[in-house]
Amino acid sequence: MDGIKSGNTEGFQQFSQFISLQEFNHHIEMWLLEHKHDFTKGEIIRLKKLVRFAAKIPGVCNAKIGTILKSIHEQYQENGISRSTFKRMILKAKELGILTVFETERKNGSQSSNLYLFNRFPTTEPPKEEKMNHHNETSNLLKTEKDQKINKRNETSEQLDHNFISNRVPQPFVQLVKCFFSEAKTIEEYWHMVQIAAFRFECQNSPVEILEISKDAFRQLIRKIKLTNCVKNPIAYFYGILDNKFMKLYSEKMAAMGPTTHRPLPFIEGIDLDWNWLE
To answer: What is the per-residue pLDDT across 19-33, written as a single tens digit (0 to 9) for each?
Structure first.
């Protein structure tokens, strides 16, 4: 992609990795849930503004740095808007895989503004079927003591079980999921999906409802897995169940508050919400 010519944003439609603004919003939500703590407060503000400038063509921005910083100043009335902070944010976002940046050039060959392309959040790999626990399984008594010691070392170094779960994951959820998926990483990934869905429908401040919905959704997932063979990606299927349940809860809350309170849920507006609930 060397030698990209500068021009109107519409000319860069071909570089978008997203089919809609909603899809772009969803991937940005997941990026920030994963990497919010990697940025300073000032860098987060600049990243959010860059996201807004990438809304017309989902995931594509060709705005000048000066234009973006001017918009931040007008919105936040900040003093001493720093280009260096913006550039640090861009560097971090590139290193984390959130952004890809290309230089563009004018017709005369001189350098123009950069082209910022937001990347899709990496697809979550489904848990391996053999890691699903079955209560009636019996241990293989033919294993040698040497094999058992090797397996124990491997499990310790590579596959931590539920006893090593982050304290951010509620224990009632851990106790349920560990009956079927015992690895800490897998359980945390399921809870990560709960966080994304809860934030999407503004339920992050309702811990009791979040826990009940997450447990109910997981039971529904296991029932589907046990009764059918059509669940190829359990985590993706689990998120779909969560999305429907939180959407229903959100709709009920909005209906109770009256028709004048209804509004869409684009990430472009919701991005300014407080992220401290993840801590």
So the answer is: 888 889 888 988 888
